[in-house]
Amino acid sequence: MKLLNIIKEIDLEIIAGLDSENQDNEVKGVYICDLLSLVISKAQPQDIWITIQTHVNIIAVSTLVDMTAIIVAENMEIDEETIAKANEVKIPIFRSKLSAYELASRLSRLGI
Amino acid sequence: MTNKSNAINLEFNVMKDDFSRAGEASSKIKKILTQLGIVSSVTRRVAIATYEAEMNIAIHSLGGKIEVTINPNEIIIIAVDNGPGIEDVKLAMQEGYSTATNKIRELGFGAGMGLPNMKKCSDEFDIVSKKGKGTKVFMRISLDSKPV
Ligand SMILES: Nc1ncnc2c1ncn2[C@@H]1O[C@H](COP(=O)(O)OP(=O)(O)OP(=O)(O)O)[C@@H](O)[C@H]1O
Ligand SMILES: [Mg+2]
User: Fold this and answer.
1) Ordered structural domains, chain A, with CATH
2) Within a domain: residue B148?
3) pTM assigned to the model
4) Which of B40, B47, B108 lies at the smallest CB-CB distance from A36?
5) Interacting residues of B27 by C-beta distance below 8 A, sequence separation 6+
6) What is the CATH number of the domain that holds B133?
């Protein structure tokens, strides 16, 4: 499913990094974890990553393994540095008040 | 970047505690491999291995560097730092072993999976460390290695 369609279906706050090009990127799976060494070895290309980590390092982790986007769950506050870096490298970051479980359930209902 | 007899050599300094730049070296390395048209399964291995090496230097060492040599049939990664070295390398290699502080763990580090990840991504892996001196990690990733 295209990222843009997910944004339309799930109420996500757009934080940074989204543009007219990457909004058409495919999301093929979901990965949920907050331990970066697990994320980098287990997340797959085109996954959407649900996390409560908001430090700038999440940008490197997501782009190194070609994830499509990051959703920060539980309305966690996101570092300014992270937002700037996401805009620079064009990795979309969203935020939601929902928990990781609720987000995953909704993504699952969309067929992901 | 130097290019001698079909090999490309890259070198990146990694500073201690520099979290705002952490991930920059591995991101640059990945970008170059992608531009060179290296197959994505190999690029993934190199990206994971160099990321973990970079983070370990930034978090656990006094600073160091990552050298990458791209040969026609393999990629060699050498991560060296200026200390403090690892007391018990066998223990450090165990999944889940970490000396990361609580502050570092809150940022998502300290799963104790970095060194195991590096080993898993390499076709050949070697780590030498001397207390008081420093740590050197050698990784060879063959260009025809399987996806991880
Ligand atoms: N370059 C280094 N210098 C000194 N100690 C190191 C170095 N690299 C690793 N270590 C030691 O080995 C331990 C295990 O390293 P490893 O990368 O597997 O896990 P971690 O860095 O603690 O957590 P993670 O990588 O999962 O975020 C570290 O906690 C640290 O004590
Ligand atoms: Mg580590």
Assistant:
1) 3-109 (3.40.1390.20)
2) no
3) 0.96
4) B108
5) A60, A63, A64, A89
6) 3.30.565.10
Structure tokens that stand for A37 in this block: 């060494």
pLDDT tens for each residue of A55-101: 999 999 999 999 999 999 999 999 999 999 999 999 999 999 999 99
**Residues B30-76: tens digit of each pLDDT:** 999 999 999 999 999 999 999 999 999 999 999 999 999 999 999 99
ipTM score for this prediction: 0.95
Which residues in B lie closer than 8 A to residue A50 (C-beta atoms)?
none
Q: Which residue, B28, B14, B19, is CA-closest to B65?
A: B14
* Total structural domains within chain B: 1
Q: Is A55 on the interface with B (CB under 8 A)?
A: yes
Mean pLDDT (whole number) for A42-57: 97
Q: Is A76 on the interface with B (CB under 8 A)?
A: no
Name the helix (H) or strand (E) containing B2. Answer: strand B2-4
Q: Identify all chain A residues contacting B30, using CB atoms and an 8 Å cutoff.
A: 63-64
- The pLDDT assigned to B4 comes to 57
| Whole-number pLDDT of residue B146 | 80
B residues 88-147 closer than 8 Å to A (CB): 107-114, 117, 120
Q: Which of A60, A50, A54 is nearest to A77 (CA)?
A: A54
Helix axes A57-64, A80-89, angle to 10 degrees: 30
Alpha-carbon gap: A36 to the closest alpha carbon of chain B (Å)? 5
The domain containing residue B38 runs over which residues? 2-142
